[in-house]
Every structure is written in C-alpha cells, then in structure tokens.
C-alpha cells in the first residue's frame, strides 16, 4: 500500500494556496514609494520599506498602521483629503 500520491497532491494544494509575502495590499501603499527588501549586513530583510510621497520620510519596514498614522497626523506636507480618510 502506498500513500505517495495523495500526500503529494495535498502538498501541491497547500503550496499553491500560499500568499506571496511582501506584497503591499492596503490602499495606504498608494501614498508611499516601496523600498525593496534589503540583504545588507549579512541579514536578509524580507519586508519592504516605505517612503512617504509627500515628505519623503522613510521606514525600513513599511508597517501599515504607522503609515496610516503618519499620513493622518504627522506628515508635515499636506496629503490629499482622501489620504487623511484612511485613518477612519
């Protein structure tokens, strides 16, 4: 009796359903430039950085919550009104 085929089929299903990491999904990303993940200093950084399109402030890891707060409350250059609405 062999179980190779069903196990291989299940593995194929599991790997094909994986989401691709590092892909910006939140609409806040449209107000930021994506800084590609870096592999300097001998460490692989898998997270994309971000730079505000309005004031050019940079983050090494683009965290959506920090980006929303920045646009709504902290950005010294006035973002458009729809950017401030993201903080609702």
Automatic annotation (TrEMBL):
Pfam families: zf-BED. Residues 23-82 form the BED-type domain. Keywords: Metal-binding, Zinc, Zinc-finger. GO terms for molecular function: DNA binding; zinc ion binding. It comes from the Eukaryota. The keyword Repeat does not apply. This is BED-type domain-containing protein. The lineage of its organism: Eukaryota, Fungi, Fungi incertae sedis, Mucoromycota, Glomeromycotina.
